[in-house]
Amino acid sequence: MKKTTLILFAIAAILGVSSCKEKDTPTLGTAPTEADAAFTYAPSAGNANIIDFMATNTTMTSKWDFGNGILGEGTTAQGTYPNKGTYTVTHTVFNSGGSASSSQDIVIAQDDQSLLSNPLFTILTGGVDGGGSKKWVLDSTRAGHIGVGPVAGNFPEWWSALSLDKAQTGLYDDQFVFKLDGFKFDQITNGDIYVKTGHETDFADPFINKGDFTATYANQMNQSWTIIEGTDTTIEISGTAFIGMFTGVRSYRVETIAENELTLSYVDTKDATVRWYVRLVPEDFPIDGGGGGGGNTSTVTLPINFEEATEVAWTVFGGSTYSVVANPNSAGINTSAKVLETIHGGETWAGLFVDLKDNLDFTAGKPTISVKVWAPATGTMRIKIENIANTADVFEKDVEITTANAWQEVSVDFSEAAAGTYARVVLFPGWDVANAGTFYIDDVTQK
Predict the structure, then answer these.
(1) How far apart are CA 156 and CA 147, in angstroms?
(2) Closest CA relative to residue 355, chosen from 410, 299, 399, 310
(3) Mean pLDDT across 32-54
(4) 34-112 is classed in which CATH architecture?
């Protein structure tokens, strides 16, 4: 009897522990309801075609579809409507239990074409004055037009394609058309596409071709594009269209964007460690050897002092901006009238670059690149030189900004860099700091 009693107690104890464990098992929270996704809206103070949206419940993650091809996020958001009409706005909220959505129609009474002047819209589509439609193609003859690197990186450090490396795969005859009217997007495949290994089973008739797969795929017309501006500015493509080599995604991080160059990066849904890169140019951009664009057409030479009537065009990345402005502190080592102003983007690696007409030669008694910089705080500035023909070929060094709110000249010795190789100068003010503030740059010089 004693043994039986002990066994029964033991069983009871085990069942008790098991019962406690079941009760302690964490559960998902309560899913939101449509009421949680309720929102209000009102015209902004400055323009009736710009609408301010406000989530009623501010405790949940909010995402917005403004009904105009643009997405947004945050408990407050703003939608821009250049064209009159009725737009269905959908607000979706998320928590650990799930998601819920609510929609409302808003009516825009009048056109306001000035709202289409967003510089990113203009670059992608040619803008109102450029016909509102722009066709982009892979920069196939320029090395580095497609490449791959780690998912957390910002350049294709693992591999970059050489000129025409993927010819006859279905990649180079693809065309990507961004339209301003209705934010429409066409992917013209000319019958076939290039597919990353692992995704070939998504298509009916793939065959192996230069390490990956070529597959039949019809033109994908009348889809839509969206720009989401934020810490990472992204381009989203709707439906069945995509850009570059197929990896299962339709969301593209903007690395560089300029009138004649669009560099995007995107992940591989079958390999979360990988980030792919693709460089596009307008269809009519001057080619370098044939087959889809490229080449260095810059006329810029050093020094750059921002005093010339014709401004030097810089390309920004990582969310940074630039403009040429009056010198905010014409004193000390820099009394020039005009300087470059750049507001640091949300990425820690944000910055800007300029392409030079000629490759740099540091062996002829001028071993350094010097820059005058006005910084809002002390810290690190990175200066990099880059091979335009192979953007994975770089040479970079860091310098310290030791004085805040005053002009300081910094110099980097590039005497170890190969002569005649590098023609791109890249500046990273506020290196390794997100949203590092406003910087001023002047007198980029080789000494």
Answers:
(1) 5
(2) 299
(3) 92
(4) Sandwich (2.60)
